[in-house]
Amino acid sequence: LGPGLLLVAASFAAFRLLNRALERLVPPPPSARRNRWKWRNIWTSLAHSVLSGGGALAGFCLYPELPEDVADTHPPGAHSLVAVSVGYFLEDFVDMLCNQKLRQSWELLFHHSVVIVCFGIAVLLHQYVGFALVALLVEINSIFLHLRQILLMANLEHTTCYRLNSVVNLGTYVVFRIATLAWMTRWLFLNRQNVPLATYAVSAVGMAIMTPMNVILLYRLLRSDFFK
Q1: Where is the TLC domain (predicted)?
Q2: Which of 101, 129, 146, 215 is deepest in the core (most CB within 10 A)?
């Protein structure tokens, strides 16, 4: 319990410091200077996606048997990776709450609340860490979602780089977001008798919220990047 919470707190502080330093590390282009907060926020999110998505993919490559038991077993470092992600989502929640109007950020705030609760259970109970690691595969697609936002803020939406990123973004969206959520929903359904009622209820509600949100986001991406 103690080390997990300490790691969450350390992660929160580290991402907060990174957020503050990014404006010097990655200066915003002229087109993004009116919204410096969002520029820093997206780059911070990109850093988390690279860390967590890459870490989750590495975990499943090193331990291909992990999907067979995502409730009780997990590879070394998986618990730490989930705890680090909880710290990031807490930092991003606070960052949006302080810098963005609620009507503009309520969807992401809602999303982060669900993730913090679900991942927090895994960190505190040392159970379902593997299940949380499956969820972190979604962050592989988030890398390209954040790159898309960065390119838009830099007024590079008419470049070859943006078009290439759009194609990769769509492909990873289907593989690492839609397929991952489908696998998680199937696992919950098949193992409902083996999961404690409270944990099952939280997970089922989380999946019921995440699935339509991601379907809507897919529709928005298709409409914006492919069906203009």
Answers
A1: 34-227
A2: 129
**pTM (2 d.p.):** 0.92
Cβ neighbours for 85, distance < 8 A, ≥ 6 positions apart: 11, 48, 52, 115, 119, 132, 136
Q: How far is CA 122 from the centre of its chain?
A: 16
- Token couple for 184: 């998680």
- Cβ neighbours around 79 below 10 Å, total: 20
Per the document, the length of the chain is 228
Task: Decide: 133 and 66 in contact? Cβ < 8 Å.
Answer: yes
Quickly count helices (H) and strands (E) in the chain.
9, 0
Cβ atoms < 10 Å from Cβ of 118: 22
- Helix axes 102-125 and 2-25, enclosed angle (nearest 10): 140
| 138 contacts 126 by C-beta, under 8 angstroms | no
Max intra-chain CA distance, the chain? 56
Secondary structure (3-state) at 74: coil
| Torsion of the alpha carbons at 120, 16, 80 and 57, rounded to the nearest 10 | 100
Per-residue confidence band for 1, with pLDDT thresholds at 50, 70 and 90: low
What are 86's two structure tokens?
């909880």
- Token pair 């290439």 is at which residue? 164
HSE-CB for 56 with a 13 A CA cutoff? 26
* Residue range of the domain that includes 179: 3-227
- Give the residue carrying structure tokens 């979604």: 138
State the total domains in the chain.
1
